[in-house]
């Protein structure tokens, strides 16, 4: 299927199925994203939380990626083994290159890879070779764009951090949480961290090229949720 999307509704069924359940999920709309978060008691993360999740308490490094430095030398198409399975891995990972799925490494596998693939494939299990954030979060640079709440417009700045409450609209299944971004237009969302189709500059933690863009369902946008810890 297009851009490695294996989700389908066979025979007109209401139940979705996929042949690659470990693969990072693209092609969700803002409405889909918000409905899921509301139903599951989660919420979107903000742009500022995205940067904190990448850097942790460490000081900013100029032009840094999620793995903590500006090194992204690799420009060789990855060769994938066990494609689409739970053991999908890269058999030619870079060494000291900052591993990420982006325009110069996506090659013939045009689309997202398995979540956590770089941690499983890395020769040296350090942040740079696994692509991990300060807290060990995978693929915050590359693979799929992170859909986060924007600080670049009024719709995003009205976000109050409320979680979903498990209740969605009875007729259309839409989110009912107040002060979340617009589920129809996507206004209030930002897109950070780059994707498999983007160049290296988009993968930088500080890049805001799409910081207040309106983007619909796309093969380059993923789904990552958050929840505020209770103290």
Strand elements, count: 6
Mean pLDDT: 91
Estimate the strand proportion.
Answer: 5-15%
Report the total helices.
5
Radius of gyration: 17 Å
What are the key terms here?
single chain, 231 residues, little secondary structure, two-stranded antiparallel sheet, two-stranded antiparallel ribbon, 5 helices, 14% helix, globular
Task: Please tell me about this protein's structure.
With 231 residues, this protein is largely without helices or strands. Helix content is 14%, strand content 7%. The chain has 5 helices and 6 strands, in the order ββααββααβαβ. The chain has helices at residues 30-40, 47-55, 117-121, 127-130, 154-157, and strands spanning 7-8, 17-18, 80-81, 89-90, 146-149, 189-192. A two-stranded antiparallel ribbon has the order 1-2. A two-stranded antiparallel sheet has the order 3-4. Strands 5-6 form a two-stranded antiparallel sheet. Strand 1 and strand 2 form a beta hairpin. The N and C termini lie far apart (44 Å). The mean pLDDT is 91.
Give a quick summary of the entry:
With 231 residues, the protein is mostly loops. 14% of the residues lie in helices and 7% in strands.
Layout of SSEs?
Blueprint: E1 7-8, E2 17-18, H1 30-40, H2 47-55, E3 80-81, E4 89-90, H3 117-121, H4 127-130, E5 146-149, H5 154-157, E6 189-192
Antiparallel strand pairs: 1-2, 3-4, 5-6
């Amino acid at each position: 299927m297009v851009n490695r999307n294996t989700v389908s509704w066979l025979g007109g069924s209401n139940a979705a199925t996929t042949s690659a359940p470990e693969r990072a999920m693209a092609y969700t709309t803002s409405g889909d994203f918000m409905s899921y978060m509301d139903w599951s008691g989660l919420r979107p993360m903000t742009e500022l939380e995205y940067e904190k999740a990448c850097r942790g308490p460490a000081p900013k490094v100029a032009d840094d990626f999620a793995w903590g430095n500006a090194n992204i030398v690799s420009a060789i198409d990855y060769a994938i083994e066990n494609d689409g399975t739970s053991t999908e891995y890269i058999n030619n990972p870079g060494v000291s290159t900052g591993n990420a799925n982006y325009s110069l490494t996506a090659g013939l596998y045009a689309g997202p890879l398995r979540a956590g693939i770089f941690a499983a494939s890395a020769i040296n299990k350090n942040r740079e070779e696994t692509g991990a954030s300060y807290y060990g979060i995978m693929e915050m640079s590359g693979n799929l764009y992170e859909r986060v709440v924007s600080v670049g417009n009024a719709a995003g700045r009205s976000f109050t951090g409320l979680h979903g409450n498990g209740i969605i609209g009875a007729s259309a299944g839409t989110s009912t949480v107040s002060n979340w971004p617009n589920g129809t237009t996507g206004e209030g969302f930002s897109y950070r961290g780059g994707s498999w189709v983007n160049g290296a500059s988009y993968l930088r933690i500080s890049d805001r090229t799409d910081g207040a863009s309106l983007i619909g369902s796309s093969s380059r946008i993923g789904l990552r949720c958050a929840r505020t810890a209770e103290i």
